[in-house]
Structures are given as C-alpha cells and as structure tokens.
Specification:
Residues 42-70 are annotated as: Disordered. By secondary structure, the protein is α+β, with helices and mostly antiparallel strands. It contains one helix and three strands. Helix content is 20%, strand content 30%. 16% of the residues are buried.
Length: 70
C-alpha cells in the first residue's frame, strides 16, 4: 500500500489550531507521523494533540486550504 496524504488538525497549547496534511499508509500511521512532526520532534514548540480529519486529500496537495493558522 502506498503512503497517501491524510488531513490532520494540529491543536496548540494556547487554543489555536491549524490544518495540515501528512503521509501515511493508514489513518493511524498518519497521526503517528504528525505526532512525531508536531509533538515529539518539533524544537520550536510542542502541539498539544493531533486530530485526524476524515476528509479526502489529493496526492501531492500539502497546503492547508487557506494556508493560515486559526
């Protein structure tokens, strides 16, 4: 199975969120990869949690819809 893009929402300690896309063979693998990117390996501040967004993403589409942090 190939690694496809999955949509996730990153939740920050101050209540902000932003949507991102991450590769994974499954939803669980995508969340684990996003957790590594935004929580365990991020030296610029740690996110609180990662939420999986059950919506389709296109292959190669890496940018959030509006490109902004909310």
């Amino acid at each position: 199975m190939t690694r496809r893009w999955h949509a996730v929402r990153v939740h920050w300690p101050d209540g902000r969120t932003h949507d991102d896309q991450i590769r994974g063979r499954t939803a669980d693998e995508a969340v684990a990869n996003a957790t590594a990117n935004w929580i365990t390996e991020n030296p610029h501040g740690r996110a609180d949690r990662i939420e999986y967004l059950p919506r389709p993403t296109e292959d190669g589409d890496r940018d959030p819809e509006d490109g902004e942090t909310t």
